[in-house]
Design brief:
The chain has 9 helices and 12 strands. The chain has helices spanning 19-32, 43-52, 69-79, 96-104, 115-137, 150-154, 156-164, 178-185, 191-218; strands spanning 11-15, 36-40, 57-61, 63-64, 67-68, 85-89, 107-110, 140-145, 168-173, 221-224, 231-232, 238-239. Helix 1 (19-32) crosses helix 5, helix 2 (43-52) packs parallel to helix 3 and helix 8 (178-185) runs antiparallel to helix 9 (191-218). The radius of gyration is 27 Å and the shape is elongated.
């Protein structure tokens, strides 16, 4: 889930199975630093917290019960790619696994950590994460489709991802779907063709409304143009 948007000191999720180390971090970050700190020793519980609530920082030990620190960090990045993560460990960073953790985390702290060092690292990571999200929100995305539903359906996943980053999403649809009805109503003469044309007109008329509902579900602003739809006939001739 996306990180918090309020401008308080920040919400920190502490993942630490050592009771003494957890007490130290809770005291330094919670009581001294004024952060809103939630602690769990279980990485699986921590992942559920990340998927269901908003956080400014995750502070985790490198060794966790039930999974390695690297496995936890990989799962965490899948849930919230932009959430800052600080890893704390008593192991030497020369270890291969520790080097990989250092590379993938935003901050790597060696135990024992001085209180002022821990508090300064948390403050910096919360601030940098909020600045990055603010910059992302100031960006906007424009999706363009020829007919109603083209962009909403074809790019729904990407548009939702941009909305999740706080970016403004707009959809520009060039026609209102009238080209389909026009093509159906101008087919070869015959009793069945007239009814097909009426059905095409009805379907085309419904598409802008469906497009508007899809845009609403995506949290996007919809702009419907009424340009004349065209189709390419055999021989390369372009007809309205």
């Amino acid at each position: 889930m996306t990180s918090t948007e309020h401008q308080g000191p920040g919400r920190i999720l502490l993942v630490e199975d050592d009771a003494v180390a957890a007490h130290f971090a809770l005291h330094v970050l919670g009581k001294r630093g004024g952060f809103d700190v939630t602690h769990t020793p279980d990485p699986a519980v921590a992942l559920r917290h990340v998927s269901s609530a908003a956080w400014d920082l995750v502070l985790t030990d490198a060794e966790l019960p039930g999974m390695t620190g690297l496995e936890f960090l990989t799962a965490l990045r899948r849930l919230s790619p932009d959430l800052p993560v600080a890893v704390i460990t008593a192991h030497e960073s020369a270890d291969i696994a520790m080097r990989e953790l250092r590379k993938q985390s935003d901050e790597f702290l060696q135990k024992p950590v001085r209180p002022d060092r821990l508090q300064a690292a948390a403050t910096a990571l919360v601030a940098s994460g909020r600045a990055a999200r603010l910059a992302a929100r100031q960006q906007s995305v424009l999706a363009i489709g020829a007919h109603p539903g083209d962009a909403e359906t074809g790019a729904a996943g990407a548009l939702l991802a941009h909305r999740g980053l706080g970016q403004k999403v707009s959809i520009l649809t060039l026609t209102r779907g009238a080209g389909m009805a026009h093509a159906a109503s101008n087919g070869p003469a015959g009793d069945g063709v007239a009814s097909d044309g009426m059905a095409g007109q009805g379907m085309a008329g419904a598409r802008p409304g469906e497009s508007a509902m899809a845009a609403l579900a995506l949290g996007a602003a919809l702009f419907l143009e009424d340009l004349q739809a065209t189709r390419i006939e055999s021989g390369g001739r372009q007809q309205a």
